[in-house]
Amino acid sequence: MLLNVEHRTNYFYSEEIGYGVQQIRMRPFLNNQQRAVSWQVSINGANEQFNFTDNLGNHVDLYTLSGTRELEIISKGKVETSENNGVVGPHLSIIPLWYYKNSTPLTLAGPKIRTIARNWETHSTNSIETLHSLSAKIRNLVRYELGHTNSTTTAEQAVNIGFGVCQDHTHIFISAARLLGFPARYVSGHLFSSEAKSISASHAWAEAFVDSIGWIGFDISNGISPDERYIKIAVGLDYQKAAPVRGIRYGDNDERVETHVFVEQ
What we know:
Elements: E1 2-17, E2 20-24, E3 34-44, E4 47-53, E5 59-65, E6 68-81, E7 87-89, H1 111-118, H2 128-141, E8 143-144, H3 155-161, E9 163-164, H4 166-179, E10 184-191, E11 198-199, E12 203-210, E13 214-218, E14 230-236, H5 239-242, E15 245-249, E16 255-264
Parallel strand pairs: 8-9
Antiparallel strand pairs: 1-6, 1-16, 2-5, 2-15, 3-6, 4-5, 7-13, 10-12, 10-14, 11-16, 12-13
């Protein structure tokens, strides 16, 4: 499938920024399931420094800000994707698999998540059925609904709230999967939908490693494994590690953010 994407993010600051640094992860991830036919990242209001591929395989553009009141980041291009039934394949990174068993503040398992995982404690880490059942369980426990959580909500908090979005579903899944012995990671990217071509955020799903197969994707919010409608952008232990934009800035100025994502076939 050939998909056309435009991801536009605008930042508005109450005062000029004295100095800031932004890491931008908005270029398609390099793998066998997708190919960037064309892609570009442009930024208005910041100065490009250099770009690199981090140790997880994410492409990173580094920019600095100075004297900025408004910042616009535009990432767009065409990506050709292929159907793989959710199977990503073997682990090819220099990062060892055990790294993806580490918890983070956003994915730390509390009593609720430990209770969820307890249903499958005796299952093998070769079991795809375990992961599909876990995904379905989370989707039933935590209803998809906007307005209840934000980017700082932890997996345990989202379970207690009972509502969340794709970020929350993904955090809960990888938290429970790690308890069961699976290496698991957060994936940020885009999803083409014929019903909603324009949305206000990127999409998120999980990947878990099964010994006999390799990495397999799970979109908990939609109850499926990623197919050719998905574009993978970045991976990490949680949202913070795979976020499209991460950075620091000096000063006490307020920030307002607007995001627009457009995906079409």
